[in-house]
Amino acid sequence: MAQMFEFKKVTVGPRALTARVELAPNAPVMTSEDPDAVDLILELLPGLSDHVCLGDAAPTFGEVIRDTELAHLLEHVSVELLAQSNIAGDIARGQTREVGERTYEIVLGCPDDVLVAGAISSAAWILQWAFSGGGEPEPNIEATVGGLVALVEDLVAAEAEAQAQIEAQVEEEAADFAEPDSDDDSVEDAAEASDEVLEDDADLAETEDTGDLSADDALDEEPEDSPASKNDGWDMDNVPRPHLVR
Questions:
Q1: What whole-number distance in Å separates Cα of residue 76 and Cα of residue 89?
Q2: What beta strand segments (E) does the chain contain?
Q3: What are phi and psi of 17, to 5 degrees?
């Protein structure tokens, strides 16, 4: 049998994961269409019978499992895998509703999005096996749950390691910025150069104050050979004098 489920869309919220699932054209819609497959599922996951099921005619899922939507079974198998992981916290809710022809939305409590996504993917594979006639290899539930737990733990460890590396880098950069370089005399040299500039400015100011000829006087005196002193037809009274900017 081809793949029974096609995940059209998965949305992760702060408290729930919502998966939109479409059944393949050749897949059964109701579990009653393949009682043997239901038996195989119950042999693998007998705890399904004790699930509380508030949306059906009976209070437990075991009473309706043989005549319910295949998507509803997918929801409960996902919840059972989460419960067996012992790291999912309180998995108190799950919901399945039809949203189109052969299309359903499954909502699962989401203590960890990676864990929940892995659980519903594994549940789809288990149902695929059962409704395809079973056979070998038979799903190993313990190994499946252990793989989900290891996946989450590896991701948590990787995130912690990445965060530690970032913090170490920040601390190293902060230490490099705060610690002076004992081999670098650039700061001392800059201070000496600044003192020399200040001394030169003081000498220059003293020279300007004690000079014999002011800048204005220099403008009034004209060299004998300058063009202006020869008065080549210019009206000197109308020639604007340059302005000295100090």
A1: 16
A2: 5-12, 16-23, 94-100, 103-109
A3: -110, 130
Cβ–Cβ under 8 Å, residues 65 and 38: yes
103-109 vs 16-23, strand pairing mode: antiparallel
Which stretch of DSSP H or E encloses residue 15? none
145 is written with which tokens? 């749950």
**Contact, 16 vs 107, CB < 8 A?**
yes
What DSSP state is assigned to residue 105? Answer: E
User: How far is CA 159 from each of CA 118, 154, 165, rounded to the nearest angstrom?
Assistant: 18, 9, 10
Compute the C-alpha angle 71/4/60, nearest 5°: 25
Instruction: Express the helix, strand and coil content of the chain in percent, nearest 5 each.
Output: 55, 15, 30
Return all residues near 12 (Cβ < 8 A) that are at least 6 apart. 110, 113, 117
pLDDT at 170: 81
**Residue that the structure tokens 């929801």 belong to:** 75
Angstrom distance (rounded) from CA 79 to CA 19: 14
The CA–CA distances, whole Å, from 80 to 46, 97, 208 equal 10, 19, 95
Contact status, residue 2 vs residue 89, Cβ threshold 8 Å: no
Question: In the predicted model, is pLDDT for residue 239 greater than 70?
Answer: no
CB atoms within 10 A of CB 128: 17
pLDDT at residue 94 is higher than 60: yes
User: Which residues on adjacent β-strands are paired with residue 17?
Assistant: 12, 108
- Buried-state track 9-21, b at ≥16 Cβ within 10 A, e below 16: ebeeeeebbebbb
Q: DSSP letter at 95?
A: E
pLDDT tens per residue, range 67-92: 999 999 999 999 999 999 988 776 55
